[in-house]
Amino acid sequence: MAATILHGVGATTALSSINYNNSRRSLPERKRTSLVIQCDGSLSSGLNISNNRGAKLSTNAVAQTKQENVTASTTSKPGHELLLFEALREGLEEEMERDPHVCVMGEDVGHYGGSYKVTKGLADKYGDLRVLDTPIAENSFTGMGIGAAMTGLRPIVEGMNMGFLLLAFNQISNNCGMLHYTSGGQFKIPIVIRGPGGVGRQLGAEHSQRLESYFQSIPGIQMVACSTPYNAKGLMKAAIRSDNPVILFEHVLLYNLKERIPDEEYVLSLEEAEMVRPGKHVTVLTYSRMRYHVMQAAKTLVNKGYDPEVIDIRSLKPFDLHTIGNSVKKTHHVLIVEECMRTGGIGASLTASINEHFHDYLDAPIVCLSSQDVPTPYAGALEEWTVVQPAQIVAAVEQLCQ
User: Which of 26, 198, 230, 352 could form a disulfide with 251 if both were Cys (CB 3.0 to 4.6 A apart)?
Assistant: First the structure.
């Protein structure tokens, strides 16, 4: 399996000054353990980060480790192994087979098979009208997809890179999200807008965009982010079947993540979070690639005596406040870890929602670790400084649960 290895540079994020005198929980004594987390998920001695917030952790964003997942794990079940981009393609192909109204359009989606091969082979199977190669004109073909949805088709629009869809922002905001309402319900817009985004490996600022923060305020649009082959396929199928416009965010560094998924058909909910790891000391909310940074940090935290509860929020709009709220009521501490920007990001909206609905259950202010508010640098070392690393997550949990 192709894997991308990033080395934490130990950038620390300033955390809020917190008073824990009234904490409802007492934690077990911390274990001061020297650990290195290998790419295969194994642990070995050699790195002491118990008292060093700037220590480095060797990280692997797509490490093929055993998933601690109580709701969607399929590692012990019969099925077949797929990479994440193959799972997306399988879900797309199944829906095209099931419903002749499903079609695909975008740059290089046809005979080239898509920039990350999500649509590979579909043009040969379904023809050029259902898998339509378009010019490099995002505003135009996104508008064409919205028009197709208005007439009864179920188009999937790929922009090759999510950053390019900024050129179609007017279509997505004024037409995609609003036409159902401004037409008095005369039109449905069952369109899926999908593609890769996030910080890759030295892709530069314009190809490292996290557009979830741009689109979250548009009325009438749902947003989901996949993080595993299992939920990638299930969310793809659910998005295609939805009568609402759905933006499906994929991460460029997760396409080669491999997992065993069921042979039988399944469709996931577009509005449910995923409980990745049950715990009792702190609720860690994350999504997309940061799920793997959090799970790597969780192994270190467990060895230090903490029991974090990890939730992949998955539904970025609307939030699954039922799952999130039940966790907050249990742990009374919340850490949000995201790759989105700090100002106006998903974490900011999530913080506001939790404070609005569950403030009385919090023993400490919510802590949010986000990317820095700078254009993503091309230089590898600088790029890592802008994104949350596992060592920062460990330090944040330690401070939050003091």
Answer: 198
